[in-house]
Amino acid sequence: HLATSLPLPSERDHLRPRIDLIAFMIDIKSKYSLKNVEASLAHVDANFFLGKVCFLVTGVGRVNYCSVDMNAIWKLGEVYCSPVLFCELELEGIRVATAQRLLRMLQICAGHIPGVSALSFGTLMRNSADD
């Protein structure tokens, strides 16, 4: 399910499936994109920041057209203890690899991978980013 911002409308709460992972998309070419994500974060329950949130930064192949401060994006990941993934949606190979990575994260967050929790996976992602 996709939403352009949070909070989600409450009139359909009873129809909404369980939310296992929230992927915030930030377009590196749009300051509005980052501001929208920052405003939406206030509407996310704190429990989601225990491994069930990630930031997906798109447009990284166009760093020349970058409108978003990369330090601000890294800071979001750090402050919210959430992984930051970078991708270029216009390149099919990278798009497919990113989709597979997000699917694997979703499987873990939904509890479909025995022995791996969203919290331990989030910690592993942060530790690998530090290397």
Automatic annotation (TrEMBL):
Superkingdom of the organism of origin: Eukaryota
Main location: nucleus
Swiss-Prot/TrEMBL keywords: Centromere, Chromosome, Nucleus
One cellular component term from this protein's GO annotations in UniProt: nucleus
Entry keyword annotation includes Iron-sulfur: no
Subcellular localization: Chromosome, Centromere; Nucleus
Cited InterPro entries: Centromere_Cenp-M, P-loop_NTPase
Protein known as: Centromere protein M
Organism: Phaethon lepturus
